[in-house]
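User: My instructor asked us to take a sequence, write out its structure as tokens, and then describe one feature of it. I'm not sure where to start. Here is the sequence I was given:
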Amino acid sequence: YGLRERVVGSDIITSLNRVTGLKLQTNQPDVWAELRALRDMMVKQRMKLMYMEARMTASESQVGELKMRERREELSITNTELQSHKNTIDGLKKENKALMAAVEKQNKAKQRSRGRVVCHGGQTECQ
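Assistant: Let's start with the prediction itself. The structure tokens for your sequence are:
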């Protein structure tokens, strides 16, 4: 339809409405109103998307920070355990050294008391 036919058709509907008191609906949708509604909906969806992307980025950043903090704590615990084990090993080495010195001292004392040389394994002659 041309513009003139639409205007004339619209005038006829308006006249019928006045005469009959009925409100007739046209079957032709308002395309511009639909487009505006779609545009508004799209703007809202874009805003929601931007908001969700920002939240996701913040969450990913927070997860990364939490993982780093957890790794630092694990490393600190591991270092503490390692230092504890080193201290235990050092203590055992000192204790072993003291025991070896005591055994050596006993061997020398036995040698003096018997007047003979005692070799490793209790042999009287050393090679």
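For the description part of your assignment, you could build on this observation: Residues 29-122 form one domain. Try explaining in your own words what that tells you about the chain.
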